Amino acid sequence: MNRSRHTSYALLLLSLFSPLESGTAKDLMTNASPSASPSGPSGASPSAPSTSSAGVNASVIEKANASASPDHQAGAKERLSAQNAEDQFLLGRAYYRGEGVTQSYEQAGYWYRKAADQGNLKAMYNLGTMYLEGKGIKKSETEGCSLIHEAAEKGDPRAKSLYGILLCRGTGVEKNPEKGLNILREAAKGGDPLAMSQLGQQLLYNSDGSLRDPKAAIPYLQKAAEAGNPWACGTLGLLYRDGSGLPKDPNQSFIWFTKGARVGDPYSQFAYGSKLLAEKGPGQAYPWIKLASDKNCASAKGPLLECQSKMSPEEIIQGDAEADQLQKSYHP
Q1: What is the pLDDT of residue 83?
Q2: CA distance 111 to 278
Q3: Exposure pattern of 215-240 as b/e (b: 16+ CB <10 Å)?
Q4: Which helix or strand (DSSP H or E) is residue 74 part of?
Q5: Is the CB of residue 266 less than 8 Å from the CB of residue 291?
Q6: What are the backbone angles phi and psi of residue 257, rounded to the nearest 5°?
Q7: Which long-range contacts (CB under 8 A, 24 or more apart) does 43-46 make?
Q8: Which residues make Cβ contacts (< 8 Å) with residue 50, sequence separation at least 6?
Q9: What is the pLDDT of residue 332?
Q10: How far apart are CA 307 and CA 310, in angstroms?
Q11: Distance CA 302, CA 320 (A)
Q12: What mean pLDDT do residues 255-260 have?
């Protein structure tokens, strides 16, 4: 049985807050790499955002000027953000997610950079992942790894796990699997879901995708999945579905696929959407299957076409909007 889930940068990072892909465990594991984005020496820094008043994180604006009129909100935003690293981070996150503002990775990177320069570890981590993936800025694995390493050294647990993975893969840094695995083991002892998920992956699959040591892997995967790691949720769904290393149990499989779908795992979204398609119809299934398809889950392509063939243009537009809203919730 060829089951290994390789994650692409975006999906690996998504694992830090989200999931993975493919009907075979091999596809699932292979998609496990980290994502990245803006700012720094090896790429052009994000340009300063425009000062339109088209919306911004309300709590940040209120702290800047509770009585500001809509026409002056942008100015209040910038006055506050020029001083406060946490609010700069919150503005970056609002732009990344499109919450209260027009979604913009470039502007997210701009505010993350300002916060990171003041030592905000969350901004440093998010900016590093944006560099790794090349979202909103020129891709630079070296710059992304450097930011992740700095955040890890200063105590960010997610950054520590991701840096361990980058060392194992030689992404943006000289490859050093031994050091990387030691970092992951240390992070897993501290309860970090990503580290537990990655160690579970190492124990579960051989390099050819065949099962290696499910008995040793499953405790790591169980803890990671319970903590909301998307890849781990989807993998448990697969193992219960196929009876691989676990007793075959369709109910448990669906429970984990449902959780995986809700935290952003592409294959789980396909599996959950397929169940909805069979039991509830295309309207409820479409947003989930669309999400999986957009993340290159090959298994979702056929069901997506089936949904579209049974929906009106207006229903498809509505389903696309619902999928967009779900997707925004998966980002840091």
Answers
A1: 66
A2: 44
A3: eebbebbbbbbebbbbbbbbbbbbbb
A4: helix 73-81
A5: yes
A6: -65, -40
A7: 43/131, 43/137, 43/138, 43/139, 43/140, 43/143, 44/137, 44/138, 45/110, 45/113, 45/137, 46/106, 46/107, 46/108, 46/109, 46/110, 46/113, 46/136, 46/137
A8: 107
A9: 54
A10: 5
A11: 17
A12: 97
**Confidence class of residue 202 from pLDDT cuts 50, 70 and 90?**
confident
Q: Is 309 exposed, middle or buried (0-12, 13-18, 19+ CB in 10 A)?
A: exposed
What's the mean pLDDT in 275-302?
96
Which DSSP symbol is given to 24? S
Q: pLDDT digit string (tens) for 129-168? A: 999 999 999 999 999 999 999 999 999 999 999 999 999 9
Q: Which residues pair with 130 in a beta bridge?
A: 36
Amino acid (1-letter code) at residue 20: L
274 and 244 Cβ atoms separated by less than 8 Å: no
pTM of this structure: 0.69
What type of residue sits at position 108? A
Distance, in Å, from the CA atom of 25 to the CA atom of 29, rounded to the nearest integer, reads 6
